[in-house]
Each structure stands twice: as structure tokens, then as C-alpha cells.
Amino acid sequence: MKILALSGSLRAASSNSGLLRAAAALAPRDMVFTFYDQQLAGLPYFSPDLDGEGATPPEKVAELRALLAGCDGVLISCPEYAHGVPGAFKNALDWIVSSGELGGKPTALLMASPSGAQRAQAALVPTLKVMEADLVFEASLRFARTHLGPDGQLLDAELAAVVKQALAALAAAITVRAREQEPDQAHA
Question: Which candidate, 68, 123, 64, places its Cα nearest to that of 92?
């Protein structure tokens, strides 16, 4: 299972990126992670003029779309800024709205901030639903860098349990989607 891990933070030492890496360490062996975190800064501001019918999207946008198209599922960890989703992350999602790579894609959310990120989750969920992402798990976590050990492992057993639940839900949804997309073998 190919998982694209999207961090909504631009910080080099982002707790959200750290949480995604800790999740990868807890994941079953058949989950292979690609991390998309610092690349957010390289995306141009969304403009429909750059993405109209017949237009070639900017290179960094095409790369993000290819990563999304090539994965089986998406794991998002996003902080909360000013009671919402950080602008850079919303910008990345704006580039995906019309191209459709999230349509039907199993997606799990681990919204993480010291306050719990409930407002960011409340802002992000409707956006992902409009994009037709298959939201299979949603959690707002009270999370800080101090929850990670020196090797990036989760130190809090309760947080680790929530992450494992998210990964299990994601794996189950990916399996169901793969079965639904298999050609009907009975008529072959």
C-alpha cells in the first residue's frame, strides 16, 4: 500500500511532519510512505489562469498531483493557525480541486496541535469532502514535539493507539477500494 503523508506545516522541525514519520514507524510493513512536507513551500499561489482547460500546470503542482494519483491512500497531519488550516496547505489543496486526484482516495486525518486543532479540522473536512476524498478517520490530537522521542517514536501510548487506529482504518479502506476496482474475474 502506497501512502502519501501530507504535512500541513512549513516548519523544518514540524511536529506534524514528525507525527507522520512516527506513524510510518508504527505502520504495517505493507504500507510504504512518501512524505510531502517541505515541498508545500515550492508550490506557486493557486491561480485558475495557470490551470485552465488545456493549460500545463506548474511543475511543482504536476509533481503533487502525480504523487496523489500514484498513492493508494493519504494520511494528513495539519496544525491549526488562527483557528484554521495554514494558508500554504489550503493553497496545495486548491491546486487539486479541479484535477480530482483525491476523488475516492481513502484519507485519514490526524490534526495535531497543542490545542487539539479542532477548528482546523472543522475547516479542512468540508474542503476534503468537496474534493470527494474518502474520509475514513478523523482525529484532533493534543500533540507537541515533546510527544516524540529522540528517534522520532511516539512516547505517548494513547497517541500511538490513535495513530494505529487511523492506519488500520486507512488500510481497510484501501483494501475495499482495491477490491471494488478489480475487474470482474467471472466474466474474463
Answer: 64
Q: What is the CATH number of the domain that holds 171?
A: 3.40.50.360
Dihedral, CA of residue 153, residue 158, residue 161 and residue 167, to nearest 10: -70
How far is CA 10 from each of CA 13, 51, 61, 76, 135, rounded to the nearest angstrom?
9, 24, 16, 14, 23
On the question of pLDDT at 38 being above 90, the answer is no
| 30 C-beta neighbours (distance < 10 Å), count | 9
Give domain status of residue 184, yes or no: no
CA angle 154, 39, 108 (to 5 degrees): 45
Q: Which domain holds residue 104?
A: 2-179
Domain count for the chain: 1
Query: By CB neighbour count within 10 A (0-12 exposed, 13-18 middle, 19+ buried), where does 48 fall?
Result: exposed
For residue range 101-134, list pLDDT tens digits in order: 999 999 999 988 887 788 889 999 999 999 999 9
Q: Residue 1 carries which DSSP code?
A: -
pTM assigned to the model: 0.93
Q: Are 112 and 16 in contact (CB under 8 A)?
A: yes
